[in-house]
Amino acid sequence: MNVAAREASRPDHSVSVLIVDDVSDTREMYAFYFRRQGFTVFTALDGRNGLDVAMAQRPDVIVMDLSMPGMDGITVTRTLKRDARLRHIPILILTGYPMRAVQQGALEAGADGFLTKPCLPEDLEQHVRRVLDAGSRRPR
Asked: Model pTM?
């Protein structure tokens, strides 16, 4: 893709993503990438912090790790999906656990998608765009 096409395909600056991951390198890599693509980026270092940031910032989409100290990604997902003010926010689970049972548990908790690490930032962006597009077609 040439530079002009890439610039034209950038989302509006008002599109926001919350990245919740307890591994700082992972969090920072995806945050850097999404900012370069024109997204507004919020980060959280664990599940509890992710829940707090989601409530305060109301991002357009959340990228959530599963295994974190304190409150794990499944618990955060369930909590967000039970809150009428936040349940519309799509949540993509991004984890190093590729087992089918883990994926099923995440989807049953209310996740809108499931990806395994390692995941290229470009691939994650495609999934983010997909859930945002699907959400814009869904009634709220």
From this structure: 0.85
